[in-house]
Amino acid sequence: MGKFVVKETASGVKFDLVAGNGQVIATSEVYNAEASCLKGIESVKKNAPIAKVEDQTVEPIVAATCPKFEMYTDKAGEYRFRLKARNGEIIATSEGYTAKAGCENGIESVRKNAPEAETVKE
Questions:
Q1: Which domain holds residue 75?
Q2: pLDDT per residue over 25-74, tens digit each?
Q3: How many structural domains does the chain have?
Q4: Is the pTM above the cut of 0.90?
Q5: What is the DSSP code (8-state) at residue 59?
Q6: Among 23, 28, 9, CA closest to 108
Q7: What is the CATH number of the domain that holds 97?
């Protein structure tokens, strides 16, 4: 079972969504306050299971409405995703994947792990 790990950083508070196997599958922005970080976690829990996927790696891009996972390639040519809430705010991002299938599996892992994940502080 996955968990949200809340961590202090030099400039605020962030969370990582960690799968049952210990892999970090999504990361948040850095929030100014822990309360805001916890709201971000609740937003991921609520939005991830219902988010559509907008694949920006193929033409033409078929736009999806928020909440959505945007799958894209970064400057290094790796596949990544970002989860956007209903209001269009980015609430979680992924690491880089060398294969598109890995990125798709990451999205499915967030969908599966986020709703029931416990929140722990590190």
A1: 3-121
A2: 999 999 999 999 999 999 999 999 999 999 999 999 999 999 999 999 99
A3: 1
A4: yes
A5: S
A6: 23
A7: 2.30.29.80
